[in-house]
Amino acid sequence: xxxxxxxxxxxxxxxxxxxxxxxxxxxxxxxxxxxxxxxxxxxxxxxxxxxxxxxxxxxxxxxxxxxxxxxxxxxxxxxxxxxxxxxxxxxxxxxxxxxxxxxxxxxxxxxxxxxxxxxxxxxxxxxxxxxxxxxxxxxxxx
Length: 142
Description:
Largest sheet: 5 strands, mixed
Shape: globular
Number of strands: 5
Mean pLDDT: 84
Strand content: 25-35%
Order of helices and strands: HHEEEHEE
């Protein structure tokens, strides 16, 4: 009797597909954020105000500093060595949209006294070599 694998034409192993560039960048950004001591609360958070790539919590250094800081992170990923900085793509319209998402999130999900911070993580994934990840804390004020 033939093995089931030979009888069923769809059981062949399919080649692995690469993740889309943006998802690879967000995975690298999330790893960097966690290494920086932040706890990721949400990824690709969607609400009526828009979307935030990553929402994280930075716990306070001292109890008197409140409950912590909710960090809203915009991830910009580029392939190759581009002269234009990835973080320059966070223009005024995008900053307003992230600020609106932050207001929505804080009003619906944060019960305590949290401050908000807006970070940008720029990821450059060259065709060959190691990706470069740059975390810019407090990148802008809304």
